[in-house]
Amino acid sequence: MRIALINENSQAAKNSLIETALRKVADEKGYEVVNYGMYTAEDKAQLTYVQNGILAAVLLNSGAADFVVTGCGTGEGAMLALNSFPGVICGHVANVLDAYTFAQINDGNAISIPFALGFGWGGELNLEYIFEKLFSEPFGGGYPKERVVPEQRNKKILDGVRAVAFRPLADILCDLDPELVRGAFAGEHFDEYFFRDCRDEALADLVRKLK
């Protein structure tokens, strides 16, 4: 699994702390972590949580990432932004129970964490425990386990509804404010990581044009 880490500007100073907690768990699982920043609050490319949604959607829909870890001060804005796009199911995860139930019941591909609200003493331990429980079992296994069949059925129904409700990502990107989109791809290492890992050449070509 390739996990992309994305931070918006209000919580960029915590990027290193978040990456350390994520890598500790991912390394034990044999997962790859790709850090798209922001790396510091002073980065030239200043991502908003809305741009987190654009970037996450491109990474997930292109196959450049299998899962996205992101967030903002409360986690709510980034969650809403990511869920505005096709191919993304993002859960709001503030604690270990959120992480486990989202993975097992909702079987999504992104989480948004509150990196300011309630993030005090021991915050880095909470992050580590969240990642441990999030990736402790294959996604979609159900909770409680006797609910796995109806939960998997409901997930398929949700996927079908979303397939009808959303336009193609390429159309959405072309209709958005060009500066907003361009800023989402302005990170220091975006070109290096995205074009290396992208599995959808048509989407890669579109991103080149939009940049």
Task: Characterise the protein shown here.
It is a single chain. The protein has 211 residues and is of the alpha/beta class. It contains ten helices and five strands, in the order βαβαβαβαβαααααα. It has helices at 15-29, 49-62, 76-82, 96-106, 123-134, 148-165, 169-175, 178-184, 190-197, 201-210; strands at 2-5, 32-35, 67-72, 90-92, 110-114. A five-stranded parallel beta sheet has the order 2-1-3-5-4, sandwiched between helices. Helix 1 (15-29) links the parallel strand 1 (2-5) and strand 2. Helix 2 packs across helix 3 (76-82), helix 2 crosses helix 8 (178-184) and helix 4 (96-106) runs parallel beside helix 5. The model has no long low-confidence stretch (mean pLDDT 97).
Helix and strand composition category: alpha/beta
- Beta-strand percentage? 5-15%
Strand-and-helix sequence, N→C?
A: EHEHEHEHEHHHHHH
What is the overall pLDDT average? 97
User: What is the assembly state of the chains in this entry?
Assistant: single chain
Tally of alpha and pi helices = 10
N- to C-terminal distance: 27 Å
Number of strands: 5
Strand order of the largest sheet: 2-1-3-5-4
- Biggest β-sheet, characterized? 5 strands, parallel
Helical amount: 40-55%
Query: How much is the radius of gyration in Å?
Result: 16 Å
The shape, in one word, is globular
Q: What ranges have pLDDT less than 50 throughout 5 or more consecutive residues?
A: none
Task: Give the topology.
Layout: E1 2-5, H1 15-29, E2 32-35, H2 49-62, E3 67-72, H3 76-82, E4 90-92, H4 96-106, E5 110-114, H5 123-134, H6 148-165, H7 169-175, H8 178-184, H9 190-197, H10 201-210
